[in-house]
Amino acid sequence: QTIRTVPTEPIEGQKPGTSGLRKKTPVFQQHHYLENFIQSIWTGIGGVEGKTLVLGGDGRHFNSQAAQVVLRMAAASGAKKVIVGKGALLSTPAASNLIRTRGADGGIVLSASHNPGGPEGDFGVKFNTANGGPAPESVTSKIFEATKTITEYHILESHDVGLRTEGSFTLAGMEVEVVDPVTDYAEMMAGIFDFDAIRALFKSGFRMRFDAMHAVTGPYASAILEGTLGAAPGTVINAIPLPDFGQGHPDPNPIWAKPLMDEMMGPNAPDFGAASDGDGDRNMIVGKGCYVTPSDSLAVLAANATLVPAYSDGLKGVARSMPTSRAVDRVADALDIDCYETPTGWKFFGNLLDVGRVTLCGEESAGTGSDHVREKDGLWAVLFWLNILAEKRQSVAELMAAHWREYGRNYYSRHDYEDVDSAAANELMDNLRGELPVLAGHSYGALKVRDADEFAYDDPVDGSRAEGQGLRIWFEGGDRAVLRLSGTGTSGATLRVYLEALETDPDKMDRDPQEALAPVISAVDEIAGIRKRTGRDAPDVIT
Ligand code: VG1
Ligand code: CO
Predict the structure, then answer these.
(1) Is residue 534 within 8 Å of residue 424, measured between CB atoms?
(2) CA–CA distances in Å: residue 68 to residues 33, 44, 71, 500
(3) CA torsion 125→129→133→135, rounded to 10°?
(4) What pLDDT, on a 0 to 100 scale, did the predictor assign at position 323?
(5) Ligand 1, atom 4: nearest CA belongs to which residue?
(6) Would you identify the CATH topology of the domain 409-542?
(7) What are the start-end ranges of the E strands in 172-287?
(8) Residues of the chain with pLDDT under 70
(9) Number of H helices, E strands in the chain
(10) Residues lining ligand 2 (ion), CB within 5 A?
(11) Is the CB of 496 under 6 A from ligand 1?
(12) Residue 123's pLDDT is what?
């Protein structure tokens, strides 16, 4: 086996976004594209010599081939060991767990997460550090710098190695350990939740549907829900990971998980429904006739955390991304614990979790997690809900009603305008940014602007500062609108408009969110000229 040194040139645009580098699959398949980026990761982390890495992906098209390239390049650069999920599969939270429990120096997750896959879909590469979390900006910026100066990469000449069976072998002196992707993760879940209580819940006739969306969570959900917890066979649907996710869009929201939504809103709905995304870190929660917004879900988990064995001593604190609704803030207030507000993207929670300032965190984009790993964790959130329901023996709708009665309801919705012309989207943001200082005091329909700014975050642990993290407009009475451009898309720009209105009147807890938010929706359109500038009448996706 010889190590080849291959001359190459920098390729433009290899800048990691909100969550790793994401591009159209054919872009990743271009000559040297993946190799350049992997070599730049090695450079960005100060070399991979003597290091142990975890490797796996969500099974999308190009996953297997890319995994072989990573193995050959890790061996060529002197890595000591790579722990890889069987079939090159690992959900993002399972990878995070393995990095932590095996004391690895980091890991590579091959995924474009909730983006569609397939030959014309998206592919992605994420690097996680030794704490199991997404690389912070200090690391991704070094990786990006390396992509701009790269002149050669190193790769082993070898046949593809077999990843179909568990066990260890060596590849040019590097140990490769193939592990079952589910075992360690399932064990960790059993250590967090009251599996006996959940088993009893299913035994009592509680019915559930889990839509794995043909993505990586299928094997995890089948093993844990149906295998260990006794949910009825057929509870988990679309359970086999497919390279193109069955032509679907593995994003668990009411639009892309519509078949599940339809079932849950229909006459024969089971008691509880859930879905997860491509790489298994997102979750959607829906009860019989009752969709739970991710922001509310986070608040409910925080309010009921002590029902779960692992959190029975209470929470150290909570954190949410800035655009996430302030429902969890109200719970934190009541519990008298700290609530942190961070920029969008899981990497910003890492430091707070590492130093023990927070136990739970979440994002409005269907991400929820805790200090058990350093990624958001879809199935964990579903098990958390099951544990709560097993203790409370209430329906999701009853639980939500009680929650809102106690804390008030933060009506919430996100409107996405996808594949907008990039120049038009940037112009919209630039223009609004320019107007922020003069908005206060002006009225738009029934709403008056109280304040407006651009969010910047000073990390209280390492002092790093992240600027340009979203434009915020507050209205008198507490309503809020936030605008930002997505950092995970692969074509054009995606404008995200986050809308929130607090309601504390107990008689107004059952409104249609779009209706409750109508004044904010029209005010922000008037302020930012969304319809005019994007040329769209309505959002593409409403969550
Ligand atoms: C989106 C979400 C963000 C999430 C990120 C990665 O980012 O808004 O909350 O952390 O996706 O999620 P953006 O920049 O497109 O808004 V995942 O499940 O795609 O890794
Ligand atoms: Co994801």
Answers:
(1) yes
(2) 15, 21, 5, 45
(3) -60
(4) 98
(5) 345
(6) TATA-Binding Protein (3.30.310)
(7) 174-179, 208-211, 236-237, 272-276, 283-287
(8) none
(9) 18, 27
(10) 113, 277, 279, 281-282
(11) yes
(12) 97
Q: How far is the CA of 16 from the centre of ligand 2 (A)?
A: 15
Q: Which amino acid is at 133?
A: G
Q: Where are the beta strands (DSSP E) in 384-511?
A: 409-420, 443-444, 447-454, 457-458, 465-466, 471-475, 480-485, 493-503
Rounded distance between C-alpha atoms, residue 274 and residue 235, angstroms: 10
CATH of 185-407, one of 3.40.920.10, 3.40.120.10, 3.30.9.10, 3.30.720.10: 3.40.120.10
pTM score, whole prediction: 0.95
Sheet of 174-179: strand order equals 21-24, 122-129, 106-110, 52-57, 81-89, 174-179, 167-171
Residue 423 pLDDT? 94
Burial class of 234 by CB neighbour count within 10 A (0 to 12, 13 to 18, 19+): exposed
The alpha carbon of 184 and the centre of ligand 1 are apart by a number of angstroms equal to 26
Q: Is the ipTM here above 0.85? A: yes
Q: Which helix (H) or strand (E) holds 152?
A: strand 152-156
Q: Cα(133)–Cα(126) distance, rounded to whole angstroms? A: 10
The CB of 346 under 6 Å from ligand 1? The reply is yes
From the CA of 376, give the closest atom in ligand 1: 18
Burial of 383 from C-beta contacts in 10 A (0-12 / 13-18 / 19+): buried
Question: At which residue do the structure tokens 């409005």 appear?
Answer: 364
Q: Find out whether the beta carbon of 114 lies less than 6 Å from any atom of ligand 1.
A: yes
From the list 64, 68, 126, 136, the residue with the least C-alpha distance to 95 is 126
Locate 106 and state its tokens: 């980091």
What pLDDT does 17 receive?
Answer: 87
| Domain spans in the chain, listed from the N-terminal domain onward | 3-181, 185-407, 409-542
d(CA 310, CA 191) in angstroms, rounded, equals 7
Tokens 């922000």 belong to 524
For ligand 1, atom 20, the nearest C-alpha belongs to 113
The residues that are catalytic are: 113
Amino acid at 231: A
Q: Distance between CA atoms of 451 and 338, rounded to whole angstroms?
A: 24
Rounded Cα distance, 352 and 98, in Å: 20
Cβ 367 under 6 angstroms from ligand 1: yes
Residue that the structure tokens 């990095």 belong to: 99
C-alpha to C-alpha distance for 369 and 359, rounded to whole angstroms: 9
Structure tokens at 322: 């800035």
* Owner of token pair 């639009």: 255
Buried b (16+ CB within 10 A) or exposed e, 402-425: ebbeebbbbbbbbbbbbebeeebb
User: CB of 324 closer than 6 A to ligand 1?
Assistant: no
| Choices 1.20.1730.10, 3.40.120.10, 3.30.420.10, 3.40.50.2000: CATH for 3-181 | 3.40.120.10
